Amino acid sequence: MSRIDDDLTRFLFLVPYVAQHRHGVTVRELEDILSISSKELAKLLERVAMVGAPDGGPDELVEVYLEGGRVHVALPQRFTRPPRFDVREMMALLAALAPLRANAPPSIGERASKLSERIAGLASERAAAIGKNVGDQVQILADGAEDPAVLRTLETALHESKAIEAEYWTAGRDEVGARRIEPAGLVQVRGAWYLIGGDAKTFKVERFRRVTLGEPMAEAPDVDLEEARRRLEELDLGDGRTEVRVGERTIHWGTGGAAGTRRWVRTQRGRAAITGPPEAREAMIAETEALLARYED
Amino acid sequence: MYHTASAASDPSEALLTGGRSALVGPMKRLERLLDLVHVLQSSREPVTLSALKDAFADYRGANDESMRRKFERDKAELAALGIVLQYVDDEDRKGYVLDTEATYLPEIEMGEEDRALLATAAQAALATPGFPHRQALRLALAKLGTDPADDERSLLRVGHRAERAGTEHVEALSEAVAERRRVRFRYRRADGEVREREVDPYGIFLREGAWYLTGHDHARDAMRVFRCSRMEAPEVSEGGPDFEVPEGFSVAELRSVSPLRWSVHSPTTAEVWVDPEVAFLVARDWGEADAEGVFRVETSNLDFLVDQVLSLGQRAELRAPAEGRARIAEALRAVLDAHAGSAP
What we know:
heterodimer, A: about 300 residues, alpha+beta, 3-stranded antiparallel β-sheet, 13 strands, B: about 350 residues, 5-stranded antiparallel β-sheet, 12 helices
């Protein structure tokens, strides 16, 4: 977009947005929403104050003022609603919702689909004219590796505050076993769904071999889902004794998931290495040598 | 020159008013466009071109034909931003109006759960390295009155951590997708081969932490998927649009297509033995195993299959093709090399 397009877009957003807030909007919030510096915002506000009928009187101009670090629009003229979504706004909104539309627990998927349809109906004529694919061209794709029936059961368990009885493959020990889990929430990281248990343990949904609803829970688990998401994103799992070097970074990975750590390192094809403790490193080397022996024809 | 009308000593407190005389070039055009919007949406009646010519100094100086051309350029520029000017040709009313329904968002009512879901999705997108149109997303959320922090009460969280490599290309490539402009880049395949590619980009997507571009590869005259981290120096053509996206094309369809089926090379059939105890982990993607526990997997993306087999470790063995076995051996040697010598 050109500079003029950017300024036009910002103006057409700013005036109705600020006018809707009776107590004004902070300079900081506007800088954040518009992705501009204080200096650029000041220039924009000066331009806003000049918009009106050419050769019209001062009462025909948009009236904007700054007070106590807040921007106010006293006279928006007829700029009372922001423009419909342009192509980029549509793309961004629909791309953000994409991983929740499909391969998601049913009620989330349905809600995300309906919301996406509503948003698509708010496109500008040009955005709509560019094609029905506009919201589909930038995507964050979910894995889709999960069994939909398992996702449905987990969602029901969460809604009805019931425990689940499950057979689960624990990658960290490379074994399948039976478990009772009190579900606290669902987290999607890198396109894969995880169930967070009441004890803050994480379970990758595709690793459930079987799930059935159990007894109602005495009380809903109180787990910090945001912290769980962060740990999954950062691969910050386990007790942190195993040290893994990835490029310049060092991750402290839990020995509780030794097989899982080795599995992950193996798929990095030499871009990661276990640097300690020595027994974890030796186990990695021994396992890799054993595997390699199968492939040296 | 601009000036502040109130002589406030605190620069953060000022009534801002405008003066117009010193505007030149682009700023003058910006002012004209905004004033044009203002005039057309404020008028109760359609505004004729001659009335616009009288009202706007920029139009006044030109003859009718060049004034019309200038106005048409302004109209097109506004249309590109979604502002729709229409000509009304009724018996007693002729002239231009601003179509407010087509231009402006209607009142939007969103329930708490919709708002929380959108906030969760947006927060994850904004935190994703390379997520394109970040600025547009912030603006769109504000238009919907949604704050990314509105997800407090949800039992759902989303994160899409992505590899850093290649993310610097994503914004430009997504612009190319939006504007339908051809792109050229040098592409390094997984086997190390580097080739110049010319692609009509139909879509761009993030999957399992990596960004990919998909579109028509001119050299192969076929659809291909390219990992952004393996691109060098992508160049987007000037102008455009250069191509039409085929009817029915959908990036979202790739969600239901396993990466095993992405067109990276000619299709081949691989044979993989998997320990029956964990066969359920791959059965959704690979189908049924035979009585010996061997899956026959059709793939045009052997590298992805190699990753899947590597992740299963001792629980799986790729038996064919030989090329796949060689790639696994190579990957395992790389792992051993990374662990060679004394630990740091």
